[in-house]
Each structure stands twice: as C-alpha cells, then as structure tokens.
Amino acid sequence: MRQRGPTPAPAPAPADPARAASVRAIAEGLSGVRGPLLPVLHEVVATHGYVHDDDLPVVADVLNLSRADVLGVVSFYHDFRRTPPPAHRVSLCRAEACQARGAEGTVADATERWAGSSDVEVGEVFCLGNCALGPAGMLDGALHGRLTPDRLAELTQGWER
Amino acid sequence: MTTVWVPCDAAAVSVGSDEVATAFEAAGATVRRNGSRGMLWNEPLVEVEADDGTRWGYATVAPAEAGALLAGELDASPRALGPMDEHPWLTAQNRVSFARVGVIEPTDLAAYRSHGGLAGLERALTLDPAAVVAEVTTSGLRGRGGAGFPAGIKWETVRTAQAATKFVVCNADEGDSGTFADRMLIEGDPFTLIEGMAIAAVATGATEGFVYLRSEYPHALRTLRRAIDIAYAHGVLGQSVLGSDHRFDLDVRVGAGAYICGEETSMLDSLEGKRGEVRAKPPIPALRGLFGQPTVVNNVLTLAAVPMVLADGGEAYAALGTGRSRGTQVFQLAGNVARGGIVEADFGLSLRELVEGYGGGTASGRPVKAVQVGGPLGAYLPPDRFDLPMDYEAFAEADAMVGHGGIVVFDDTMDAGAMARFAMEFCAKESCGKCTPCRLGSTRGVEVIDRIRAGTDREANLVLLEDLCATMTKGSLCAMGGLTPMPVRSALEHFPEDFGVTPDQADGVAHDIPESATSTDGGARP
Q: Given this model, what pLDDT does residue B507 score?
C-alpha cells in the first residue's frame, strides 16, 4: 500500500508504553482482515474502555493510514468514546416508539437523578430494538424494558447519586 | 423431568426471562431456550412441554412462580394461554420467514433441518445460477429494508457483472424505531439468514459475505457468531458449501452507533473502515459496491425470505400478497400498543387489522391518535386512514410508506408538533453531513418548527417549512434527508392544531410525494 502524503514527523513517545504496545498488538492482530479499522477500534474500546489520543498514531502506523483518517473515523461514530468510561452507564432510548410509552419522563428523571455525578453517565440512544416493551434502556450493557422511573431506581440501587 | 421453554430473545431478557430460566432450573425442570414467538406483551412467555410434545404457554411469568407453575397452579389463571400452536393470535398469521422463530432452539442445526431448513440451499445447488435468480425474480420478492426494490433484478445485475470477487452483504443495521424483526430473526433463527446469504452467493457467484450488525444488538451478535461457527463446522459455509464447488465465507461486522449506516452506501463505506458517509449513485452497489466490487446488498428479512422461495418455488411465494407487493411482510407492532410484537401476514391486510385487530389498540387504554408506519422517516397516519391496505403502491399514493413494516402506535396524549420537531432534530443528530440539504436543512427545520409552534410569523414560516421540505426531499443524496420531511408534512397535514395552525393554513402547504419513497433505485433506508 502506498504511504499517503509526506512522511509524517515521528510521533512523540507515548505517555503509556504498555498501552501503546497493547494497542499495537490489537491492530497487528486484525490488520489482515478486510477493512480492519472498525474492528480494531472496537477491540481497543473493549480492552481499554476508550480510544486515547495516543492510540491514534499507533493504529494509523500499523494500518498504513494517516492519523487524520483514523481521527475522522473515531470522531464519526458514537461508540468510539474518547474519555475513560464512568463506573456505571445508563443509556435510555429516546426514539419514537419509546417516546410513545413515556420515555421522555424516564429520561428526565434519570438526567436529574444523576446530574453532576462522576460515577454514573446518563446518555441517550435511538432504538435498542425493544420497541414493544418500552421505555427501553441499557444499564451497564444489560437491556431492560418497561423502564419507569421507579423501576430504574430499583435496578440501580447503590449507584452513587 | 419436565421440559420448559424460556425465550432467550433480547426483548424477553429485558423483562426478566434469564432470571425465569434460572428459577425453573432450580425448580428441577429441563430448560430449553427458544427465540420469542413474537407475542412480546406476554414476555416472559414460558412454555411447558407435555409428554405428547404439545407446548402449553403461560404469560408474564415471574421467577418466583416457577414452582407453582410446574405444580399446575397457574392452569386456571387467565395467563394460561393453552397450546401455543393453536393460539389464535398466531394461527391467524402466515409465518413464512418467521416459521421457526420461537419454535426451535436458535442454534440447533438439526432442528433447523428437521423444520425444513437447508432445503432451499440444497435445491439452489442443483440449479444453474441463472435459474436460481429466476426463481427469486418469479417470486416477486422486493427489498424488505424499506425501498422495496425487486431482489431478482439486483441479483441478476450482480450475476452478470464480470469480476474476480463479488460480495453478499446483509444489512442488519436495523436502526429505525419501531423495528425489531431483523433482531428477532437473528436471535431466534439465524440459520435462515445464513442459508439465504449462501443462496445469494451461489446465484451471483459471490464468495465472501458480511453481515453488518448494529452494536446495539449484543444478544443478536452472540447468537449469529455461534451460528456461523456451527455452519462452518457442518459445511454449510466454507470452501465447499454443502459439498458443492461453491465457496462462501461469511463474517459479522459490528456497527458503531451511527444510524446513517443503515443506508446501504454508508454501510459499505463503514465496512471498508471509513466514516459512514453516503455515496452518490451511480455507480450502483450491484456493480461497484464493497471495495469497488459487484455486491448484493439486502436486508435481513429479504435474505430470510429466500430459502422458502427456493424450497417451494418462486410461484408459491408470488401466490401470496397483493398487486406488486408479493409474499408476506413481517409487521412489527410497537410503541403504545396493547399487544405489541411480530405479525407476519400476506401483503394486503389493512392497517386497521394490524393496529386494532392484532394490536388491540393502545396499551394505555386511551384512544389511538396516530400511527407512524415505516420508521422515523415514515408518515404519521390518523385513524381515518386505517383502511389503507399494506401495499407499497397504496401507501405511496397516500403520501406514506410501508417501509420495513414497523408500526408505532401513539395515544391521544401525543403532540404531533413535538414529533415533527423530533424528526428534524434526529436528522440533525444523525446526518452523515455529506450533503447540505440534510446537514443544514434539518437544523433549520427544528428552528422553523419552533417558530411556527411559538406563533412567530406563522404564515411565512409555514411557507418556509414547505420550501425547506421540498429542498430536502429533492436535493438530498439519500433517503435520510429525502424522507425526513415525510413525518413532518404528515404531522402538519393531519394534526395542524398541534402546531397552533388552522387546517386552512395547513392546506395551503403543498404536498409532494417524495420520489425516494417510490423509487426503485435500490436505495435502502434510512
């Protein structure tokens, strides 16, 4: 594959050499598949929780892409978070079918409940495919249906408010 | 020991079926995990298998009830559903693509075969590729992802294209609200999809396939990966498909939370490892698709219909349905509906039969105000339109679309003005940004709707909104920008009072049928 553009200046030494080595190993392990960038980024997030800025040149180097290409892809997709994940994640569906069952109330309740929390992150998603049993949400990756504010409180007992 | 069936479908899991399964194991039952029958309002729906094989259903079972249920204490309860194979809500349907979903264990290949699986692929391997495509053409099967493009024509284009490598790509990026049939099929009967893709490969000369599955579906991903491994182990996939000369390798790729990747060309870019931006067409993906090679791109349900088409012949499938909408559609009842779930039926039944008959009206018990058919880009229709037959052309004539058959029900507390605003807001959030009408038009749309609802210079802003809708409809690269005006215009037409607008003012706004709703350019949703 042709190297695009002029040879880039060497990247500064990564702050975390162990992480850089791990990311490099992930990228090298998947570099043989067709269109490897998304699988590599998914694996980085699965292993390290997020994509650090220092990961970008490592991935770019292994896959022979420009750093801009990698950053463009990372920033396009919601799943490739660029900050460390919180202790708990609440993702509530705000799409039409869940709105028809009162999702906006559950979303407002959760947003207020964990406002300013550093441990619990409340986010919106658009459709989890549970449209007949809404309001739907994912709590730390587990899918739940019929999520009223009361049910949400019950399921998240012990989470810092 | 009693055998108990507890669904492993994500919707059932979301309301506690895993805990129910654990409770039955603790109570001494043999637990088998099926997909869901699609009666989602009854989940967790537990079935107890009698000695004669009859499966007796029980609705909304709680873990604490396991012992009592096994002791027969729920038999007199209204939650006892009787033999599931005789349940009228199911027997009234025509389960073709969903014939095995909820019945068998999803990754039990022997059960798949004994329920008619692999007959279509076996027959396809005895035919010329051209004859396989001809069967699909004869069946009248049209793309189930929303655009309704004839599958046989697409396949023929790929078959006759000259290239060393061809691909089959399944679009399983089911991002539209109100749709979950792709997910349920993959979780409940993944071999049907794998078989359909293998038939597409045999017919077109493709040797590699990908399923592009959204990341919001972790349960489906696990089931599909397991099914693919089993299919390889049994020679359904790999170097020699069922012992033939055809090679077909299949892999799953996971999306990353971008709604636009349900549009086929953005999906292809995403599969290539790029930002999921829409491509201009032509060239069509059938000629220059994944990595520039001829590519069959079909939705999950399109491919899942193919095994039956090949097993029973195209004419048997074409005998179902109405007009140019042949076969069955897997309708999905969602939102504020009393009996939500999967209704697979021949095309041609009315919207009323679905919403009021199968659906039983709203879950809240309040009057139905509107339904949205075909996803977030579909029209809002009031009850006086419920006699529309479910038919691509009839819906297009009514400024609406069947799309993928998702139906979201709203009761009379719905604010149609807020939903119209939401349609624009969603488009602004999820636009890929490549074309201006979609990227900027959606943001301006939110602002204009806000001004109309606030009563600011209302008449002028209504004209502006219509102008904006026309620009988005005609000027957007794909159906996302092109169809976002559909919910907006239909909400304004049918519920002007929710915008603070009089019906006369709303009538002044022209309504064009968006060309992309009825076009046959092969574009998938969104």
A: 72
Check CB contact of A132 with chain B, cutoff 8 Å.
yes
Write down how long chain A is: 161
Distance CA B364, CA B359 (A): 12
Q: Which of B178, B254, B291 sits opposite A96 (nearest CB)?
A: B178
Domain B321-411 has CATH 3.40.50.300: no
> Which CATH code for domain B416-518?
1.20.1440.230
**Candidates B215, B273, B419; nearest CB to A79:** B215
What superfamily would CATH give domain A88-155? Glutaredoxin (3.40.30.10)
In this prediction, the answer to ipTM > 0.90 reads yes
Domain boundaries, chain A: 17-76, 88-155
How confident is the model at residue B524, as a pLDDT? 40
| For range B234-246, the mean pLDDT | 98
User: Per-residue pLDDT tens for B127-156?
Assistant: 999 999 999 999 999 999 888 999 999 999
CB contact under 8 A, B258 and A126: no
As a dihedral over the C-alpha atoms of residue A4, residue A7, residue A13, residue A14, rounded to 10 degrees, the angle is -10
Give one DSSP letter per residue of A34-60, joined into a string: SS-HHHHHHHHHHHHSS--TTHHHHHH
- On chain B, the residues whose CB falls within 8 A of the CB of A131 are 177-180, 332, 334-335, 340, 406, 408
Q: What are the sequence ranges of the domains in chain B?
A: 3-90, 109-318, 321-411, 416-518
Going by CATH, does the domain composed of B109-318 fall within 3.40.50.11540?
Answer: yes
Tell me the CATH architecture of domain B3-90.
3-Layer(aba) Sandwich (3.40)
In whole angstroms, what is the distance from residue B40 CA to residue B63 CA?
17
Q: The tokens of A131 are what?
A: 């449209």
What is the predicted pLDDT for the residue at B146?
85
Å between B275 CA and nearest CA of chain A: 5
Percent of chain B with pLDDT strictly greater than 70? 96
